[in-house]
Records
---
Amino acid sequence: MDKHSSGAQATAQLRGHYMAQLRKKRLLNMILLIVFIGLMAAGFRTAEERNAGGFLDGVRNIFDFPADVVGEAISRAHLLPGYLLKYLPSLIETINIAAASTLLGGLIGLFFSLLVTRGLAPVPWLVGPLRRVLDFLRAIPEIVVALVLIYLLGGGPVPAMIAIALHTVGALGKLFSEVNENASLKPVEGLESVGASWSKRMWLGVVPQVAPNYFSYALLRFEINIRASAILGFVGAGGIGYDLRNTMSWGQGKFDEAGAIFLLLFGTIVLVDQMSSLIRNRFTHGAKLSEVRV
Amino acid sequence: MNALSLEGSVQQQFARKRLVSFAVPALILGYFAYIFVAFDMAGLGARVNVKNAATLVSDVYSHKTHVTRDNRDGSLEIAIEGERKGRYAPGDSPDWVSLGDETVVTLSGGHVITMGALVSYDIPGYGRVTAKPGASGVNAVFPEGAVPEYISASKNRLMIVTDAGRLTVTRNRTEVFKYSAGWELFFFTLDSPYHSMSWGQIATAALSGEAGAILQDFWSNKMWRHAEVAWAIVETILMAFLGTFGAAIIALPLGFLAAKNFTPLGTLRFAARRLFDFLRGVDGLIWTIVLSRAFGPGPLTGALAILLTDTGSFGKMFSEALENVDEKQIEGVASTGAKPLQKYRFGVIPQVTPVLLSQILYYFESNTRSATIIGAITGGGIGLFLTQAIITQKDWEEVSYYIILIVLMVFAMDTLSGWLRRKLIQGDGGGH
């Protein structure tokens, strides 16, 4: 009897504690939610105040420009194939910028990643400083490097390629080093026991193990870099972005060429997106978009 | 026989591996060779603008002061970087210029320039160069012997460029540039009383109740526009914040629509997925252009562009995460008699929250960088300041200031989001 009541008492006490804890957690979550909503609302109002046009006016006009472009493109549809052909070289340049910078950045990033992986690094005290270098390369937006290089080298694809490649070194260097950490050390030890040098241990012991993952990440980076190279073109670095800015500046009545470029860009991005996810699925069943946007 | 065929197949495999290990590097090399030609890298050497590079580098750590005399009326003007905002008041001058009938400019290393009707420059190790600008030209007179390379002289123009500074004389104008280290007027402009004070004096003034005025003068600095730059940074972060979290709020319900285990209706799922593909495929650049036509330049346009693109990305990622939830937990909640909404709230949301939150925070980080770029296109935030400063092609000290601020901003946001990830998502062992 006594035992029973004390047991019930303990349960009641436990339940009381639990409920108190739950209430505290709920209250905290509630406060967080309110702060978040407040921030969103205040942020939206500030952004709207500092914008040239307000939100409600803009929403009403939002389809004007797309309608213009589509309308003009349809009314001169017979010219469209010609335009697509005309801007194909620029599109190829944009893709080349992305591909070359992904390849270049990937190769340098691969080298960096081996230098910053604990357990594989040949110079352990360099791991920390080199990681900071990678952080720094990732932190600088591409446009900063590209604009400065355009001033020094003139317009064209090279500034964009260098800018994107630098960022790619930072991003892929970090991702590759995370992949390296999961590599088995046994082949490396085996190679070491027969006297292989560091470069041979890495090239024959580590890289073959993780190459499919490297490839997946590099493909995802390629997708991102195509977008980046189109954007950099818009600020003067050549490729399809540059043509887009020019055709846009011709103004109303001449949007059909801009429409053709929109179409090319959209088609390319969707195509590369689909192809890369197909290839990635064959190589690995892992790498996700979310992991790669560092 | 069996061993033989095994050996054969092994040999074959080795041959293939060998081929691949040579073919892949050869392909990469071939592609780079193609890029080398296609991008005209060989002509790059000719295109490099060495003079621009020198201006850029020297501008980053130094500034120049212009001392200009109008030879027609004898008036004198001293201005930092030759800008109106950096002009000294008449009768006021830095301590290396002594005003009078003849203005004497003392450069470093014993170089002295006297500016008046007669201009003279004493160059240590060479001698005195004089010029008498007038209707007949600049009438330059040099010491005997060959004229060194750093002097270029013609009938109407004399230019002397030394390490200490630069003198230009034309018929109408005599101008001296003096280079000094550091960013000019970074804290206070010349019209502020605090410009001529030392740090100690300013600290004393601040303690005696002038702190507000001092801060006000710094904040409203016309040359560096600290207040506006700070606002631009806030605007950039605001774009990233509104865009990312707005997209997440919209994408969550859409993600349920696109997930196989929550939406049995195929057409609905298909529609949601195609919407995501469309939003992602159109890409931030095109969204930015389309939206800036409707909303005009500013942070709202940038925020909406990020919001639209990322709604596509988040929708896709969220639906993938939702398809991977553990059904057992939902069944467990259902067995207690939970209604459908409660099933989602207690069976699904707790499972996916850590994954979704960490994805959202990753995007928040990377969108801080995107917002800088979008700002440069649509005209808002620090990206706009950066492009404007680069377009002038002479304010490189401001460009480097903005670059430093951008990098600090990105680092700060990375740190904040990393800290939040660790704080909010316990058990996310990686914490990368």
---
Amino acid sequence: MSYIIDRRENAKKKSTVNRQRFLRRYKQHIKRAVEDAIHDRSITDVDQGGQVTIPKRDISEPIFHHGEGGIRHKIFPGNKEFVEGDEFRRPEGGGGGGSGQGKASNQGEGEDEFTFNISQDEFLDFMFEDLELPWMVRKQLKDATSFETRRAGFTSSGSPEKLHIVRSLRAAHARRIALTDKETRQQIRALRKELWALEEATPSPERNEKITALREQIKKMEKGSSKLPFLDDFDLRYTNLVRVPIPSSKAVMFCVMDVSGSMTQSIKDMAKRFFILLYLFLNRNYKQIEVVFVRHHTHAKEVDEQEFFYSRETGGTIVSSALALTADIIDARYPPQDWNIYIAQASDGDNWDGDSATCSKILTERVLPKTQYYAYVEITNGPHQNLWHEYEQVREAFHERFAMQQITDANEIYPVFRRLFEKRTEGAHESA
Amino acid sequence: MSPRKKKREPISTGSDWTFPLIEAYDREIARVAAEYGLDTYPNQIEVITSEQMMDAYSSVGMPLNYNHWSFGKQFVETEQNYSRGRMGLAYEIVINSNPCIAYLMEENTITMQALVIAHACYGHNSFFKGNYLFRTWTDASAIIDYLLFAKNYIRECEEKHGVEEVEKLLDSCHTLMNYGVNRYKRPRPLTAAEERERQRSREEYIQRHLNDLWNTTIPKKSDDDAGQEPHFPPDPEENILYFIEKNAPLLEPWQREVIRIVRKVAQYFYPQKQTQVMNEGWACFWHYTLLHKLYEEGLVTDGFMMEFLHSHSSVVYQPPFDSPYFSGINPYTLGYNMMQDIRRICENPEPEDREWFPDIAGSDWLETLDHAMRNYKDESFILQFLSPRLMRELKLFSIMDDSSRPTLKVDAIHNETGYRKLRESLSAQYNLGNREPNIQVYNVNVRGDRALTLRHYMHNGQPLGESTNEVLKHLHRLWGFDVYLESVTPDGEVTNRFACPPKEVVEVA
């Protein structure tokens, strides 16, 4: 007797726990592989899954086994020319033309590397592990502008289409039971029994009289209770729906970049990598992200992504123009109570001399009070320029939401990014 | 769909499978199997996806198991190899349980499903039920319950003592898993209900018993040093995990229970390791025989047979030793050919067979095969039944590899002088005792520092491999005190010593 069972719908991924434990155990290896991947990959596929290679010996599970040496006999199939007593040199690497039980040591020696794939999610998890969104706060409920309708029990008032029939009838039934008292009901029942008994008995005038009396009495009593309506306004129940404000989980990310003559394509490339990291990072934390690209030389312009990274347009450098434009855009389109605002600025540090003071003024007065986080990266290997020094003062004033780092080489982008977004121990900063 | 025997219409003609078709094939195969007298557990045939097959693969083929990273590693490896197309998944997994659970993969054609049913549900299944090793060492009706118990117990331990603590312990147990089996003594059959009931009382008992051992032996220290040091254990103990479970001084009761679980699982798989050739040979022989019978009856089509034979012959193909595909002797080939050969010897014996196998030549082949299946393991099966003719067909030859000589020597080939030697060597190759180093608990310094000494009884002068020190670290974790391991030649000479924590290593030889 056989039972045939279709298990295809059963839980899949039974091995997930074991897989997770394996990944956890070799976290260091995987992290290293992830970081290498970020250095080597082109920007467009940085967020795909990745291949991780671990030296076999690191993950071996040791067992007692025989080492080389001693005398052993091995049987092989497929003899062609050997006869008993033949001798020949030991073949290189392992005994006899593909050693018979090579598989016995698939842990231990053997192949030297263990390679496997991790998924995109796992890749990103490892990439962003230990990072925290700077001061990510769910926007205050009172400022929330979007609502969600949720069921919230039942009410006794409402519009007809929300009438809940089962609940209403149940209430009516309960009311009817509650408003007639038990005794009356029992009396009526007793009288009825009496009446039936009499009707069975032999007819006599006395009996008829009694029957009439009983009927009268029952009718009277029933009248009292049948006055109760079957369904009363009081019984009606309506499904209750409430509107619940949803905290904002939207973010806008401003990419601000200098495209003046001093910015070479390789510097722009580095800047791009940095922006992409930030985008991926935000993507994991917010449902909805908008990206605004602001490029500037002597004056600033909001552009699309393609133009932002690839169009060739150069000139002098006035950073404040970009900051002013950013502030304008925030005021016009992204009210801070609805949006978590992030700004990433990349530049080679060059600025027109008199402009840096204006920059810090716009930042402290118009931009920083509204943003969650402002990250500035200076991509240069020369000495710091005046913008950097100006920004250092800004950092003093807004140290919890303003961060700056210098990048000199493409390898540094990821470490710098990590440093900017490192987990901090203090709680989230409440921005009203 | 019921096949009308008079008309002999094939059960199916297409390649797609459906549940009614699987049922129809199963019914017919069961009928034929019963005609041949195969005695099986009831079957539970489960259709699963390839993803589920990978899951099953990586928990050592069991439908459930406790969690451990090493299963994750296996899963990752399987997944990787499969996605690269480097390996096909096995067509089937079959579990020695009652009812006997067999997995069919969704992707297979109906021919493959029928092949798997014949192979697993009637071949392996009857082997599990009949072979003496399985009958002695495993309890098919209890294993699923026991694994469930084990999984829950280990999960509880993880909750109480932390995942990492449990993982460390399991790591250590796994390294010694091969030494957690009784090779000769029969263990008590395990049942999950009993396990649960007795688990607590056992914890208390062991703990008390243990204290007795250490209490009574330690204080006597100064008294009679003159007499010969008593040995503990009095006789060497082959089951190292068992010894630790019962005697390690520092383990908590839950740790002993976990060791016991690993031991029980190891014991359950022990017969499978010893009967691979026979078990696969038996299953291949029967899928071949059963499906041919269906073909003779006209229940399957020519196309079905072509597809079946194609996959059958790739399963039982033996690449020669110098082929790039060679990776040892294929147990399917050896087992299948031996089974067919036994049938041939019974049915059409030649003079040579009458000389070599006077008992079975000309006997009833069904009875002879059944007897062989029930009463042998790989080692004894080969020693008893490998015929000169098969050795010639497979062109077997033996190579002696003596590390003290610069060359390899062919010391036997498939000829009159070589048959017996070949057969003995091949049989020895399947002797687990030769494959795994023979290591036993030799002594505990009960009165002194509680150091544990193991002895490695060397076979043909083969030394221990390079991971020995790693294994000793795990053993040290379990035992809690110093651990020594000595390699001893048959003359009683100690040739090598290992210690954990490492001491001055003394090279004796």
